[in-house]
Structures are given as structure tokens and as C-alpha cells.
């Protein structure tokens, strides 16, 4: 048993330094015989144990954060996930989400792994900071998704609940401010969840599956075999219209598709890529 006297001031100092709970800080200081560095290590180890114990838990809540560069040519999205909605509203969690996004903007990592290895202002890496907050909160926290995307013009959208974000890459703006039209398209993506920009971007396996499902339905309806291929092709075209962005009916004006809406905005304007991220999907 430690004979070192641990004062309330010592406990508070460690709490301010680490963000851990008062009782956890006191126990760590007692176990470390008053050694602050050793106590910090003990708290970090506790965080790592909590993280490992909850590693299989689902993370369907959290916060999506987005930053677009001043010149509009790069967008970054960080989806920081946790287990429950109350934790997603905790100040420490929200501050961490902003710190991780700021680290992404400052360092331009290509992957979530690279982002996790970046040191924050206090010298700890993103991964270490997440582990420590996991220990403090007692809930699994992960970078669910990280997006780093570039192009001629990037427009973003975050849904009001903070759990969905969209980044869209536009080409052909030719210097015209397309922000308003871009937001409309980003909101279309959020609402309609297209699988690709256009027909040629659809995964061949998805196309094959849609054709086979269509053929089965047609045969069950008793249609002649010689008509199956033709009808299936028509159903595939309907799939493209419903599920690929440029061919979708524009939500704000059903008389045009998204391709036509963009061309009406600026001749030749189109979307070359997009990324839609939704926590809990």
C-alpha cells in the first residue's frame, strides 16, 4: 500500500492533464506512488484496456465533420463514431472530432491510418487521444471513415443530425460560382443515395445481380422466354435512372434529370465523383 499522501490538488492537476475522472486519477496516483508520469501511463493503459474490451461493439452514433479548402479544390471528411447518441453530444467527443479534422487539414493524410498517426497539439497522436477518451468515457470510439478528395470544385453538405456528410467533385464550372447548384446536388445525393455517378461507374457485379433478379421476376410473371432479355434490359435502364446520380430525376424539379439540371446551370458542368458517408447506415 502506498504511503504517499495524494492531495485533492494533485488529483485535480492529473484530471486537468488527462481528462480522466476524479476517482480514476486518485487511484492512478496512489498506484504510481504520486509519480505523475507513471499515473498518466496507468490511465492510458486503462484506456487501452477499455478500448480492447469494447472492440467488438457497434459504433452507429457519432459526428461527421467536413472541411473544404479556401480555393474549393480539396475536401476532407472525418466520421468519428461512438456507441451511443449521448456520447456523441459530449463536449470532449465533439472537441476531439474537430481536432482530428484540423489535423487532417493541416497534414493532408491520404488514409485513416496516416491520420491516426498524426500528433496533435499536446504531442499525443490521434490514435492515443482516441484511446484515452475511450478510457475516460468507457465507450468505443473510432474513426469510422476518412475521405480526402480533390477536383476542380468541391461542394459539401452535412445533414442536420450531424451523422451524414457528402462531398461532391464538379468539373466544367469554368470559373462560374456553382455553390448553390452544388448544394442542391449534394442534398440529392444525401436523400437518394445513388450507387455511382453514371452507368459506367456501376460495379459489374451489381449490374449482373440486377439483371438476374429482373429475369427471375419476369419468368415468375409468366412472360415468354424470348421476351425475357428485352424486358430485363428495360428494367436495367430503370435501375440506372433510379440509382445513378446523373440519370436520377432531379428532386427539386422532376421535369429534368440531374445531368440536365447541371447542363442548364453551366453548359458542360458535371459531377466526376462523390462520397456519401452516413453513420449508423
From TrEMBL:
Biological role: Associates with the EF-Tu.GDP complex and induces the exchange of GDP to GTP. It remains bound to the aminoacyl-tRNA.EF-Tu.GTP complex up to the GTP hydrolysis stage on the ribosome.
Alphabetical list of NCBIfam families matching this protein: tsf
Protein's name in the database: Elongation factor Ts
Gene3D superfamilies assigned to the protein according to its UniProt record, in alphabetical order: 1.10.286.20, DNA helicase RuvA subunit, C-terminal domain, Elongation factor Ts, dimerisation domain
Coiled coil residues, start to end: none
Gene: tsf
InterPro entries according to UniProt: EF-Ts_dimer_sf (IPR036402), Transl_elong_EFTs/EF1B (IPR001816), Transl_elong_EFTs/EF1B_dimer (IPR014039), Transl_elong_Ts_CS (IPR018101), UBA-like_sf (IPR009060)
HAMAP family linked to this entry: EF_Ts (MF_00050)
Organism (species): Pedobacter vanadiisoli
Keywords: Cytoplasm, Elongation factor, Protein biosynthesis
Compartments, record wording: Cytoplasm
Domain Translation elongation factor EFTs/EF1B dimerisation: 76-280
Similarity field: Belongs to the EF-Ts family.
Molecular functions (GO terms): translation elongation factor activity
